[in-house]
Specification:
Blueprint: E1 8-11, H1 21-26, E2 39-42, E3 51-54, H2 63-66, H3 94-98, E4 105-107, E5 112-114, H4 120-123, H5 130-134, E6 140-143, H6 145-151, E7 155-163, E8 166-177, E9 185-186, H7 187-192, H8 194-204
Length: 210
């Protein structure tokens, strides 16, 4: 019998409407102790109201774990990078500074790094993360690649990101126009080279055609 496709997490920035539903839902995740581990960032606030949800990308080789001197950050066998373990975390902020996506947050009151763990208590048993379960525009989606291909035929999932000369592969996918010839998202260009960056963002945030 064929092996069934696994559910994956997809972020579609062009669909984000800035409603904050995901932020509120994230506070209800049992592992977050009532705090939201997702945020909405403005792409170019001076020119647009477009927002994008920021979640942990769950890197194959997580920099946050690699720089942790206390070995407090663990990655599960199925690729989920978890919040730092309280007994080991020394609140040094190395992970906060090292993450290329700017995801880990230091809870100074608890002396603990906390981050999105893709609602592991839910996704490990096949349920959607809280954020994906409430997103009205499906800018955050949880399903199979087959489902995404059927629902969004003009978009393709990318999970490789270029930072300078470094390629980072992630468990989370970002949806990009299928017309793009790139097989990765060039984050460096978008962040540090305005002329090129706007072209990259135009591609990634292009409105899907019916």
């Amino acid at each position: 019998m064929p092996v069934p496709e696994k559910n994956e997490f997809f972020v579609d920035p062009g669909r984000c409407i800035g409603c904050q539903s995901c932020v509120q839902a994230c506070t209800e995740c049992d592992t977050h102790k009532g705090q939201s581990m997702i945020q909405l960032d403005f792409i170019d606030r001076s020119a647009s109201t477009q927002t994008v949800p920021i979640v942990c990308m769950h890197c194959d080789s997580p920099t946050c774990a690699e720089v942790c001197p206390a070995d407090a950050i663990k990655r599960t066998e199925d690729g989920i990078v978890q919040t730092a373990r309280k007994p080991r975390c020394i609140a040094c902020n190395n992970c906060v500074l090292a993450c290329p996506f700017g995801v880990p947050k230091m809870n100074t009151g608890m002396n603990l790094m906390m981050k999105c763990d893709m609602c592991y208590d839910r996704t490990s048993i096949g349920l959607k993360p809280m954020c994906a379960s409430v997103c009205p525009s499906q800018a955050l989606a949880f399903g199979t690649r087959e489902e995404m291909a059927r629902l969004r035929p003009n978009a393709q999932p990318l999970n490789t990101f270029r930072f300078g000369n470094q390629l980072i592969r992630t468990k989370v996918n970002v949806m990009a126009p299928r017309t793009s010839s790139e097989d990765h998202v060039d984050v460096t260009a978008a962040m540090y080279e305005p002329a090129i960056g706007h072209d990259v963002l135009d591609d990634v945030f292009a409105e899907e055609q019916p």
